[in-house]
Amino acid sequence: MAADPIRFFNRYTQALETEQVFGEKWLRFAYGNPLGRAGVWLLARRKLFSAYYGWKMNKRRSQLRVLPFITEYDMDVEEFAKSAFDYRSFNEFFYRALKPECRPIAAGEGVAVLPADGRHLAFPDVDAADGFYVKGAKFALAELLGDADLASEFAGGAMLISRLCPVDYHRFHFPVSGQPAAARLINGWLYSVSPIALRRRIRYLVENKRMLTLIETAAFGRVAMLEVGATNVGSIRQTYVEERTVTKGEEKGLFAFGGSCVITLFQRNRITFAPDLVEQSAACTETYAHMGDVLGTVY
């Protein structure tokens, strides 16, 4: 199964599509070959490896990678907040802002929105799910949150996994309005979060470095957001002001270079996810959709 192409459902075309995977040959060797897995264990999962790559992507000469990347992945430059020629490094291009009108925020006090562009899996009852990326492959909330008491608050709750590819818009936003606490670091490794890796070992999501933020809301109760680091993710940067009321769709932070992941948790009986997300996720198929689009409605 790990050698199969990565297929996802596109909410906008209403069709299954095949993902063009950045660094696919390397990923398949690293996570599908015993020698490659040894290299991941010895080097690629470690902070120094990703820090070095992030340093390279911040160098001025990395700017030369921008236009070829845009061309290879057929990116829509009309969405960019500034010209593709104005980025001073590849990393600056990578965590680029978009024109606000390109990501409208779904209206309604009882509507939650997707926190990021990407490919999403939605599970209305995380405890009852058969598996996440493959059947039978799960992790415990206590492992994800690093806190057994907090995990008990979200037992039987709903979970959204939003996977960002290197080609995606890499800023993440609040899915609901409310008051966020300070983000808390849960230290860990930096394995890949590509399905190529996660199909072999879903536990990478609970072994990787991540940041946890709790959001107190009027409509949805307490909501937890986790930004998960991964191989070659230079950093997770929080740009919001803690303890200040935010509105849904407001920017929370950004990822520097690399594929990454945002996990959003709701307490039991607080949200009804959009039907297309639930239907596709039941078959372990991700749904591609944009930040600000409908995630679900208040239960």
From TrEMBL:
<keyword id="KW-0865">Zymogen</keyword>
<dbReference type="Pfam" id="PF02666">
    <property type="entry name" value="PS_Dcarbxylase"/>
</dbReference>
<comment type="pathway">
    <text>Phospholipid metabolism; phosphatidylethanolamine biosynthesis.</text>
</comment>
<dbReference type="InterPro" id="IPR033177">
    <property type="entry name" value="PSD-B"/>
</dbReference>
<keyword id="KW-1208">Phospholipid metabolism</keyword>
<comment type="pathway">
    <text>Lipid metabolism.</text>
</comment>
<dbReference type="InterPro" id="IPR003817">
    <property type="entry name" value="PS_Dcarbxylase"/>
</dbReference>
<protein>
    <recommendedName>
        <fullName>phosphatidylserine decarboxylase</fullName>
        <ecNumber>4.1.1.65</ecNumber>
    </recommendedName>
</protein>
<dbReference type="GO" id="GO:0004609">
    <property type="term" value="F:phosphatidylserine decarboxylase activity"/>
</dbReference>
<keyword id="KW-0594">Phospholipid biosynthesis</keyword>
<keyword id="KW-0670">Pyruvate</keyword>
<keyword id="KW-0444">Lipid biosynthesis</keyword>
<keyword id="KW-0443">Lipid metabolism</keyword>
<keyword id="KW-0210">Decarboxylase</keyword>
<keyword id="KW-0456">Lyase</keyword>
<dbReference type="GO" id="GO:0006646">
    <property type="term" value="P:phosphatidylethanolamine biosynthetic process"/>
</dbReference>
